[in-house]
Amino acid sequence: MNDVGSALDSLLAIAVVAALAPLLLGLFPRVRVPQVVLLLAGGIVVGPQVLGVAAPAPVEPLADLGLGFVFLLAGYELDQRLYRQDAGRRALLAWVVSLLLALGAVGLLTSLGLVRAFVPVALAMTTTALGTLVPVLRENGMLRGRLGGYLMAGGAAGELFPILAIAVFLGIANRFVALLSLAAVAVLAVLLAVASRVMRPGGRLARVFDERQHETSQITLRFTVLLLVLLLAVTERFHLDAVLGAFVAGMVLRRWAGPSAPVLEEKLDVAGHGFLIPIFFVYSGMTIDLHAIAQAPLRLVLFFGLMIAIRGLPALLVYLGVLSLRERIQTALVTATALPLVVALAQIGLRNGTMLPENAAALVGAAVLTVLVLPTLAVSMHRPAVEESPRRDAPSP
Description:
single chain; globular; Na+/H+ antiporter like fold; 397 residues; mainly alpha
């Protein structure tokens, strides 16, 4: 009974934080703080290091499901057509350059004894918080025209490729298990693709899904949750990796949904952002080691500088010739903004023992700084009244 009470108390505290975050943003619209930052801060406050009214352990299964939804939605929202355009190819090149710089810089930190296992830290340097950035960029008119297409492609690369790298390099015990994990993901993709063909338009099964996807049945959402929970259960049982599976499931689900994709996306947003994803971020806030940050604040500053240099600076060269200097600086600031995937990487690294607690805390703190500082600088440089003539290779946003 005590365990049940502890779980409910922790869930109640998380629900309070999750409800207050958007309320505060609505009451104080001039405070341009992303909701993720408030959720993390709320987790710190209600967690064991401050008020102690909530504990992370009782809500860990729900946090795992929230983490799965983060990657499921990232795969679902990805526009694969971007990588057939010039913006996508340049975004891929910029990310590869960032990865090489990250491996070199973090490898040096490893040799100095500041980092124990450099792969998760290096990957954290290559991420972009596209989901966090899109509302800010859209409100300020930065997703229109040539610049908008390159910003979207750069942000998508900062989500897609780190996720693929996480699946390959983290949480895998040995090479055989890694291959088995990737094979399982391939099987999942094939099964989902086959299922979409079995459900022919006008068929009985397709009619059932079409008729019962709204109101009390919500059949498409329930099957999506079933798929995700099944994926997490199987990967936990056989020690496989759930990250890539959730991401690929999101990509295939979008194609599987067909014309109903926007409807399903709205339902996934409600289930994910309305309930499970806030639990993950508040839970992550509860696990941040404030004592470690206080003991080594320069580590946070170091990671903040590396995120800007490693993820942002390649944009100044890669987009030379297609974007002006001002736009390239804006692109550098936007692509260097990172938070949700850094939080996920820190959690994965802590759980599998590949990341030092002080590095996890400093990385999340540095990512919070990028969200607070860099988008504001990018927006302040925007000149909506000055429209440059579109070029032949300019993609549509």
